[in-house]
Amino acid sequence: MARRESSPLSSVAVAILKERLGTRRLDGRVWNIGPDAISQDFAKACRNAGITGLHFHDLRHEATSRLFEKGFDTMEVRTITGHKTLQMLARYTHLRAEDLVERMK
């Protein structure tokens, strides 16, 4: 059985979900897509744009790093991203040297 988790959402995400809830299916799903559909569509969009070496999961790394750059602290980022351990959170965090230099001024 899948575990239930909650995660904070931006106001934009909440608005989109509220809109989609009006078209929810009888089985309770909000979107009518399979588990691999988003990754496949992302890969197709990258191919069409001539982008190589970028995968949908890479966006998780990017989002984690950007949350830190926006000033969220470790526990806030961990809660938003759902990482269970600090070790895994660190694996997903890639801070840009130029941003760190700017903050050190």
UniProtKB/TrEMBL annotation:
Keywords, alphabetical: DNA recombination
CDD domains: INT_Rci_Hp1_C
The protein's name: Probable phage integrase
Location of the Tyr recombinase domain: 1-105
SUPFAM superfamilies for the chain: DNA breaking-rejoining enzymes
Keyword Transmembrane carried by entry: no
The keyword Chloroplast appears for this protein: no
Gene Ontology molecular functions: DNA binding
InterPro entries: DNA_brk_join_enz, Integrase-like_cat_sf, Integrase_catalytic
Listed GO biological process terms: DNA integration; DNA recombination
Upper lineage: Bacteria, Pseudomonadati, Nitrospirota, Nitrospiria, Nitrospirales
